[in-house]
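Our working data are protein records whose layout never changes between entries. The record below serves as our worked example for the rest of this section:
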Amino acid sequence: MSAVVACLPGDGIGPEVLEQAVRVLSALPVDVETVELPFGGAAIDEFGEPLPAETLDACRSATAVLLGAVGGPKWDGGAVRPEAGLLGLRQALDVYANLRPASQGDVDLIVVRELVGGLYFGARGTRGDGTVFDTCEYSPAQVERIVRRGFEIAGTRRGRLVSVDKANVLDTSRLWRRIATEVASDYPNVELRHALVDSFAMEVVQAPESIDVVVTENMFGDILSDIAAAVTGGLGLAASASLGDGGPGIFEPVHGSAPDIAGTGAADPAAMLRSLALMLEHALGRGDLAAAVVVAVDNALTTTPTPDLGGTATTREFGDAVLEAVSLSKEEPWARARS
């Protein structure tokens, strides 16, 4: 039976970069069916909501979800924003573990960000005097499952895990630190250290090569993963995987919808293609194909750069270069990666 990938083009450059991922996926030796569905601002325009029921149902029954990008000034100030669809999809699929790899040269780290709790999903509102509030809440179970995911990932890498919090100020962080310490006893081969988010942000900038795996809560993870992306090439090259426990994951580039260049052919699809590689690895169990795509993207960044990297290649030309590497080579790259 074929794996099913729900494709959500979204807004701005989303459809353009997602097209390249689908082209590359179609060229690989894997049995996959893709289904395109409305999402984000495009879905608001057509259906009045960013996450139509049909789209959510299809995502729930899919093997994986590939997402282009959402949002744009067109929908600013509206009753509902495209980003609400993204938060709703994450919560509905319970993809609590957001993996944000960042690598370049000597730097090879991954941020494991809790994705469905904390400030983004806590109670919020406005009091009578005009005060606005957002609430950060975490249950012990929420903390334990993401911390365990961090330990498990560190165990497959260099065996070093940093748990990042603000335990000198926040009760939620004190809970986080206590549970991380308790869980560490189940992973004797992984070295755990704790760090405060402010000083650790400086470490990411000044000594990223010393970091292996980072596990942290939603807001801190959002900020730290963007910093890590900045020191390894920028958000335009950053990929992500959002995973739960057994259900479909969401695989998407970190960059925004870039409406200013939408339709010009200038969008860089590297982050989308790297997200495809994460999908091949985590959703389809094809680490060999994932490795081949990563190598092909890295080569294309050198040989066929798009304007954001000082080149002249179009989005499709970059996709062509990756396609050539993974499907037209006489030596199958996935066979080399597997051997």
Remarks:
- Confidence is low (pLDDT under 50) at residues 333-339.
